[in-house]
Structure formats: structure tokens, C-alpha cells
Design goal:
With 182 residues, the chain is mainly alpha-helical. The protein is built from 10 helices and 4 strands. The longest helix is centred in the middle third of the chain and has 22 residues. One of its GO terms (molecular function) is calcium ion binding.
Length: 182
């Protein structure tokens, strides 16, 4: 499966993906497929995700969550997922404006509902046999598609961290807990 299909399932348009590719290529001057953590930090500050000098803990948290394979660099797939996760989206910002002007519970629910739908689309991409849970094999297959070179030990550690109820699988609730709130 083409990773672009995954991006489109998340709601990233072709135009947004193209913009992200251009931004990534500006920093990937050696064209080696990744950027340094320092470059990524600079991008996060440039686009206003993290205010310069304000919150080192927040910056470190975003970097750690973005570096999926823990190789101390950010590849394009990690970059796209991080930007999707932390950049404000048009539909979310419109909902946020509505909530700011009119704080009815239904609107607050619809914002959470959209977030859950986005997470569910992401979860379903990992859940390849559509049984409502992610096995270690499914996790491994997705990581291979994204060209993240995780060792078997690293994959096992990911599963152990995510599998809160220790049933050998990651269900949707466990998956949601892995990710910080949007």
C-alpha cells in the first residue's frame, strides 16, 4: 500500500502533502531522507507549534513522540505524522472558533467526535485484518511500509508499552491513550 493513501485517509490533502514535502526538502539538504532533531525543533518553532524558548519540555515531548523508531532523526513519514498531529487543521480551527463564540455542548462534542474519527482512521490503517485490534505482526507490517527500521526488540517494546490490558493486542482505547490529545 502506498503511504500516500494513509495520509489521505487521515485527511491530508494532496496539496498539504506537497507542501510538507517541500518544507521537508528545504531542511533535508543532503537528500538523505531525514532531518536532524535540531532542524525539526527549528521547524516546530518556525511554524508556531512551540514558542521559541518557552517550553523545552513540550518541545522534547513532541520530538520524542515524532521519532517513532528512536533513531534520533526525523524521516519524512515521521515528519508528516508529526505535522498532522500538531498543526492546526482547517476544520478543527473552524470548530474551535465556533466553540469560542458559542460554547454549546453539542459543538464541543462534535470537535471530540472529529478527533476520534481521525484516530479511528489511523487505527484502521494499522488494523489490517479489521478485527478491532492491532497485533504485533500488523504493527510490524505498517512500520515496514513506512520504512522505519525497528528491531524485533523495539517492536516488542512498543507492544508492551501500548498493550495496557496485556492481551497481546492494541485495541482502539489503548491506541488512543498512546497519543497525546490533538
Amino acid at each position: 500500500m502506498n503511504p500516500n493513501n494513509y495520509y489521505f485517509q487521515l485527511g491530508i490533502t494532496a496539496e498539504e502533502l506537497s507542501t510538507l514535502q517541500e518544507a521537508f526538502q528545504l531542511y533535508d539538504t543532503k537528500q538523505n531522507g531525514h532531518i536532524s532533531v535540531e532542524q525539526f525543533s527549528h521547524i516546530l518553532q518556525e511554524v508556531g507549534i512551540v514558542k521559541p524558548g518557552n517550553n523545552a519540555q513540550e518541545l522534547q515531548h513532541i520530538i520524542q513522540s515524532a521519532d517513532i523508531n528512536h533513531d534520533k532523526v526525523i524521516d519524512f513519514n515521521e515528519f508528516v505524522l508529526a505535522m498532522f498531529r500538531y498543526m492546526p487543521h482547517n476544520n478543527t480551527s473552524q470548530q474551535q472558533q465556533q466553540i469560542n463564540y458559542n460554547t454549546q455542548p453539542q459543538q464541543a462534542f462534535s470537535e471530540k467526535h472529529t478527533t476520534d474519527e481521525e484516530l479511528l482512521a489511523c487505527f484502521q490503517f494499522f488494523d489490517q485484518d479489521h478485527d478491532g485490534r492491532i497485533s504485533q505482526k500488523e504493527l510490524e507490517q505498517v512500520m515496514i511500509r513506512f520504512d522505519t527500521h525497528l528491531t524485533p526488540k523495539e517492536l516488542k517494546e512498543m507492544m508492551i508499552t501500548a498493550d495496557i490490558n496485556r492481551d497481546g493486542f492494541i485495541d482502539f482505547e489503548e491506541f488512543k491513550q498512546l497519543l497525546p490529545p490533538l
